[in-house]
Amino acid sequence: IFISLCVFMAFFAAFADAQDTDPNMGIIPAPVSLKKSPGEFVLSQETTLLADSIDNKAVVFLHDYLKNNANLKVKLQANTGSVTANSIVLTSKGADNLPAGGYTFTITPQQITITGKGAGLFYGVQSLIQLVPADKGAVAKLPCVQINDYPRFGYRGLMLDVSRHFFSVEFVKKYIDLMAAYKLNNFHWHLTDDQGWRIEIKKYPKLTQISSRRAQTVIGNYHDRTPQQFDNTPYGGYYTQDQIRDVVKYASDRYINIVPEIEMPGHSEAVLAAYPELSCDPSLTTYKVAETWGVFHNIYSPSDKTFSFLQDVLTEVMDLFPSKFIHVGGDEVPKDAWKKSEFCQKLIKKLGLKDDKSSSKEDKLQSYFIQRMEKFVNSKGRSIIGWDEILEGGLSPNATVMSWRGEAGGIAAAKQNHNVIMTPGSAGLYIDHAQGKENEPLSIGGNEPLTKIYSYNPTPAELSPDQQKYILGVQANLWTEYIPTENKVEYMILPRILALSEVAWTPVAGKNYTDFADVRLPGHLAWFDKNNFDYRVPAAIGG
Ligand code: TNX
């Protein structure tokens, strides 16, 4: 009888396994390992939340979430050590050997236990939250499970361009909330560009008085060069330093670092409109905050005036943002203004810069520019990130490269033992591009469906395992030339950032597009519906 019982149980287990239509329990990004067991935990108003410390960020987050989103007011109590039935235990005890950002998460019929330190505990809470149906109230039944989880990459980024179009503090927080829900941890805030400067700098008031406003904006698809028309409407906006501090704290409460970007030496026309003395030709009176898109030829002069301006700006920026990384741009810098400038040519001679096969003397001048800024940033204990053009003319000694023009820049940088963040447009990470071929709202063009971003692997096979260690992580970018509204931001990022989160978090072996898109995603789309988020229905769902 015993043997036949065992055979039956083995058969039953195999059968139950084969029947498991949702092996990741709906969680996005898919955890490293998840084992279900029989039984369930009933979460209700009677459940107690026990924490090492009741003001821990993850604890506060969960308590607030249950109250505000699941209609469950659970008691919050410091854990005195005695095991209590019907409790959620959040603890960092026993978490010392977990990988950075890692957590374990166990549900038994008596107790939910999440073990993790710092961000790890917070990520465990995010996984739990995904199991609690929103607006349930009264009781939620959670199946028993044992999850061990940790991120594949330390840098899991999402960029928002607030220069081309400006977004309110309230909306930026919403963007940050979405990042937190999917365990993304670096918000790259693109704060300056030709079309508008968006951060208050006390020492240079004209940046907010003049550079933050443009007289009008081109309408229609400018990149297609269809006839240009303008909306004849002034447009502007900026964040005060108090608002920035508030957002930094909000993000940090969610274990999200904010990487501020101050563009140099290009994408700086808006600054030159206010401070033409920083340009190569201060006698010109035509500098204005740009009203169209693309690349502009007026750039900073590599003069002492410019360097002291940028150092002053970065000093205030570093006071506001605790981020180890400060992004200094460096992309798309046409060098014709430098070629024409007598001052630049003299400087090139003085520095002994010469054309060679791989770079022009002006490229080398850009490298000099970025290196000088890097020295300053490093002197404050921070590091720079630059777009991959900073490789041209020689990489600054400690710079991290954001590889956007394909992976080539990232590969070259890793081979030079430099840190890299992969964000190649060619892999679907330019989420300002359309999500399908037809019936999409006006966009810069392209066709970057969910499948494409999902299948990206940020560690190029051509790098050795040692070189792959320089790939800190991966990021998607939302440029907003054609994205003037909050709804459209949501539509462009959802659900693509869910695919991004799995690229950044889940080991390659744990990824499965069908499980992601057909099994787990629908529950998240329902959550978007409930919370009134706009999103793109992926083509694969519903036919
Ligand atoms: C290139 S990506 C840019 C941006 C544009 C974007 C449009 C990068 C570093 N620069 O200035 O907004 O293309 O997709």
From TrEMBL:
It catalyses: Hydrolysis of terminal non-reducing N-acetyl-D-hexosamine residues in N-acetyl-beta-D-hexosaminides. Residues 1-18 form the signal peptide. Keywords: Glycosidase, Hydrolase, Signal. It comes from the Bacteria. One of its GO terms (biological process) is glycosaminoglycan metabolic process. One of its GO terms (cellular component) is membrane. GO terms for molecular function: beta-N-acetylhexosaminidase activity. The active site is at 332 (proton donor). Its EC number is 3.2.1.52. The keyword ATP-binding does not apply. It is an enzyme of class 3 (hydrolase). The keyword Oxidoreductase does not apply. Belongs to the glycosyl hydrolase 20 family. This is beta-N-acetylhexosaminidase. It comes from Mucilaginibacter xinganensis.
